[in-house]
Write a structure and sequence with these properties.
mainly alpha; 0% strand
């Protein structure tokens, strides 16, 4: 009885792992297709203007000359 339950759980786990692997591969293929179709849009979406942000006042270091 216990061996049967373990075999059943093992088979169920293998099915779930296979399903997860297929989902991951489909997602990777979708991303590769998106990149191949339009690399500029992919680049802009991927980095989403990271370098467009201007430094705020909190990014500047305090120096003695700033305090005068």
């Amino acid at each position: 009885m216990l061996k049967t339950a373990i075999k059943l759980l093992s088979a169920l786990l293998a099915m779930v792992q296979g399903w997860q692997l297929r989902r991951e591969l489909e997602e990777q293929q979708r991303a590769a297709d998106e990149l191949a179709d339009n690399p500029v849009d992919w680049y802009n979406d991927h980095f989403n203007g990271v370098r467009d942000d201007q430094p705020s006042d909190t990014d500047k270091a305090d120096t003695d000359s700033d305090k005068q």
